[in-house]
Amino acid sequence: MSSRLASPEDYSKLVNSFDTWLFDCDGVLWRGDHVIDGVVEVLEMLRRRNKKVIFVTNNATKSRKSYKTKFDQLGIEAHVDEIYGSAYAAAVYISSILQLPKHKKVYVVGQSGLEEELRDEGIQYLGGTDPADNTLEPFDLSTFTLDPDVAAVVCGLDTQINYTKLSKAFQYLIRNPGCHFIATNEDSTYPTSAGLLPGAGSISSPLRYSLGKSPVCTGKPASTMLDCVKAKVHFDPQRTIMVGDRLNTDILFGQNGGLTTLLVFTGITTEVEITGPEPSPIIPDFHTQGLGDFRIVERTP
Amino acid sequence: MSSRLASPEDYSKLVNSFDTWLFDCDGVLWRGDHVIDGVVEVLEMLRRRNKKVIFVTNNATKSRKSYKTKFDQLGIEAHVDEIYGSAYAAAVYISSILQLPKHKKVYVVGQSGLEEELRDEGIQYLGGTDPADNTLEPFDLSTFTLDPDVAAVVCGLDTQINYTKLSKAFQYLIRNPGCHFIATNEDSTYPTSAGLLPGAGSISSPLRYSLGKSPVCTGKPASTMLDCVKAKVHFDPQRTIMVGDRLNTDILFGQNGGLTTLLVFTGITTEVEITGPEPSPIIPDFHTQGLGDFRIVERTP
């Protein structure tokens, strides 16, 4: 059962118990282009108390650098080395875990943020934002030639999704059974300030469906992202808390990594999903309305 | 266990045992734009013997009328009232089973063949081939207004699939829980003469994934298509055979309808899938290399 934070002491106790704070972004810090109330003050309070602050996001449309720009625009303090995105995790997975030889390439179903992270890891890629693949013209399989160096297909959220990209990715995967199939994340929906849209998992789903095969996922709840964090930052899981708005990504990610978890209701999940008559099988350790609730700590002696 | 047709007597016996012959098209009669060897002669032989010939296809990109044109171009005799497509089945399902009131509309993720069948059934629709929805421009949810008359989303194979269409369909389904979610068919792949491409099931899969909800499917193996045939043609299931190249659509469709089934290997399925060490759970009554094998009947006294 999840504990609802209520008294000033509840919040203070949590702040005192954890040295490292991992935050999901969409639905926790902001929603679309709007900062969630109180978030800036709470992050400042944690920094003043020398807490390590880390941002773990499944959004693979942005590189860490462009994420930093988003934090800046919204007036939230963040540093590139505090940001871990699923596009970065995919690039690290390809370069460090798969150790793809340098002459091999990746076919990208995704946007420029994913391309940027691949480039930064020295990975060659095709597809992605290439105008030739961003078209609604008919795809002619009979004139398509496979690049023999493509050894992986990586999918992220791609709002330029089309049949040419899907067909090329499908060819690489079906004709070469050794070709790796990677998804940055499997979020079903994508929150914007105007509401939900289909998420990254829905972009890889046509391939999953047509191939009858699941991708390796590098985003939450998979532990690949936490492996990336661990490789760069030292933290004690006993004194680390994961704050998120989604049960099946953020909270499960924290649980998979042996972290304490805190759910907020400023994003996807509603309170009834954990306290109602048919609660989710994934229950956080703690829950509160929003991150802004922690402002009470400042007002407490 | 499936019986392999081998001797002239096997083929003659089958021809004599069945009055109504249902055929899948892609992979049985043709592959892409090439007629499969012997098909024209065998269909002529069946017609000469007064067999009822019916074509049941999951391809929802073509209306029955444009299917007829394809038969004509390939030199295969067929009549519009012998052709049953999944787009037609979807239109009949909406008008006759759901009985959608005339002022209600359908949002289409699909091509002109599906639109034509809806129009012929007097169903109003949005989306589909509308240029406004066939774009790779960013989709702006904040300026999108739901048409309150949309009461169903219908998905077929759509090689113009894009994020705007998916997002609109998603909005209709998520904001109105009573909105019907229909797929013409759930084929994982789509056969062309140059090879396989992602099929209609992969076009509806982003919605299935993002909504966590399955569509009602009107194509094979669902019985909706056979209900359409039954409404128009009298046949005795005991003396009816379904000929197809796919186990999980054609053969299962025949079995669901209580028909005898015959598998051919000119399409998707290979012989090892039914006779190998790990056979499919879906086994036809009979199998033969291709429909052209029945030419032997003509040569038999």
Task: List the SSEs and their pairings.
The structure is a homodimer of 301-residue chains.
Chain A: E1 3-4, H1 8-17, E2 20-23, E3 30-31, E4 34-35, H2 39-48, E5 52-57, H3 64-74, E6 83-85, H4 86-97, E7 105-109, H5 112-120, E8 124-127, E9 150-155, H6 163-175, E10 180-183, E11 189-192, E12 195-198, H7 200-211, E13 216-217, H8 224-232, E14 240-244, H9 247-256, E15 260-264, H10 272-275, E16 286-288
Parallel strand pairs in A: 1-16, 2-5, 2-14, 5-6, 7-8, 7-9, 9-10, 10-13, 14-15, 15-16
Antiparallel strand pairs in A: 3-4, 11-12
Helix pairs in contact in A: 4-5, 6-7
Binding site for substrate (chains A, B): 220
Enzyme class (chains A, B): hydrolase
Cofactor (chains A, B): Mg(2+)
Give the structure's gist in a few sentences.
Two copies of one chain form a homodimer. By secondary structure, chain A is an alpha/beta fold.
Structural overview:
The structure is a homodimer of 301-residue chains. The first copy, chain A, is an alpha/beta fold and 301 residues long. Chain A folds into two domains: 3-58 and 221-297, 3-Layer(aba) Sandwich (Rossmann fold), CATH 3.40.50; 99-217, Rossmann fold, CATH 3.40.50.1000. Chain A has ten helices and 16 strands. Chain A has helices at 8-17, 39-48, 64-74, 86-97, 112-120, 163-175, 200-211, 224-232, 247-256, 272-275; strands spanning 3-4, 20-23, 30-31, 34-35, 52-57, 83-85, 105-109, 124-127, 150-155, 180-183, 189-192, 195-198, 216-217, 240-244, 260-264, 286-288. In chain A, the strands form four sheets. A seven-stranded parallel sheet of chain A has the order 1-16-15-14-2-5-6, sandwiched between helices. The first copy, chain A, has a five-stranded parallel sheet with strand order 8-7-9-10-13, with helices on both faces. In chain A, strands 3-4 form a two-stranded antiparallel sheet. In chain A, strand 11 and strand 12 form a beta hairpin. In chain A, helix 4 runs parallel beside helix 5 (112-120). The longest helix of chain A has 13 residues, at 163-175. Chain A is elongated, with a radius of gyration of 20 Å.
